[in-house]
Amino acid sequence: MRSLRDEHGQVLVETAIAFPIQMLLTLAIMQFCLIAVAKQVVNYAAHAAARAVLVREDPDRAAAIVCSPIAGSPCVTGGPPIFVPGWGNLPRSPQSQAKTSVNVTNRLDDGDKMVAAEVTHDFELIFPFVNATPFPNWHPIWGRIVKLGGVVHKPLTQSVSIPQPWDGDLRGVRGHEVIPDVSSGAGG
């Protein structure tokens, strides 16, 4: 019959083996969740960029404003901070400007009544050991990566197409043909 003293320290050894694996798995799941949230933000940034093209505003600024909450650390800096009236300078907006790019793939008034924008944002992988990779542009779990300022980032790209809600082919016509334009004073 074996005594209990033969198993002394077994729990400590099992914990020493299982804990690092469990911790790495937990951090990877948390990073996956952050990437999923960032993909939703980048999708909305693509919508904001397409909407900005539609109303003849700057699509790069619109996407940078939306992506500023997920911009991460100041490993790279863009231009000056974006000023939002009533709020002041937008936090992390210089990083967002540097990490976010917009490609307008379908311009306004090109005849097909659609506007499309593609936004790419370099999302920072924040958890230690989860973002470590020996490869320069690829990670075994996250796929294609870029290193900005020595920090690993996952490029996230989303595209959005939205319809043009008016007939943009008619020159000199403002607003909608049924709904009068408020600024023209027309209508009843």
Put the structure in a nutshell:
With 188 residues, the protein is an alpha+beta fold. It has helices spanning 10-54, 59-67, 93-99; strands at 83-84, 88-89, 100-106, 114-124, 138-139, 143-144, 146-148, 151-163. It has a domain at 8-55 and 100-171.
Question: How does this structure look, described?
Answer:
The protein is an alpha+beta fold. Helices cover 32% and strands 22% of the residues. It has a domain at 8-55 and 100-171. A four-stranded antiparallel β-sheet has the order 3-4-8-7. The chain has a two-stranded antiparallel ribbon with strand order 1-2. Helix 1 (10-54) runs antiparallel to helix 2 and helix 2 (59-67) crosses helix 3. The radius of gyration is 25 Å and the shape is elongated. The N and C termini lie far apart (100 Å).
Q: Largest sheet, described in full? A: 4 strands, antiparallel
Percentage of residues in helical conformation: 25-40%
- Please identify the structural class as seen in this structure: alpha+beta
Our measurement of the CA-to-CA distance between the termini, rounded to an integer number of angstroms, reads 100 Å
- Count of DSSP H/I helices: 3
Helix and strand pattern = HHEEHEEEEEE
Give Rg in angstroms.
Answer: 25 Å
Q: Please mark out the parts with pLDDT under 50 across 5 or more consecutive residues, or reply none.
A: 175-188
Q: Look at the structure and give the mean pLDDT.
A: 80
How are the strands of the largest sheet arranged?
Answer: 3-4-8-7
- Total number of strands: 8
| Mass-distribution shape | elongated
Approximately what portion of the residues adopt beta-strand conformation?
15-25%
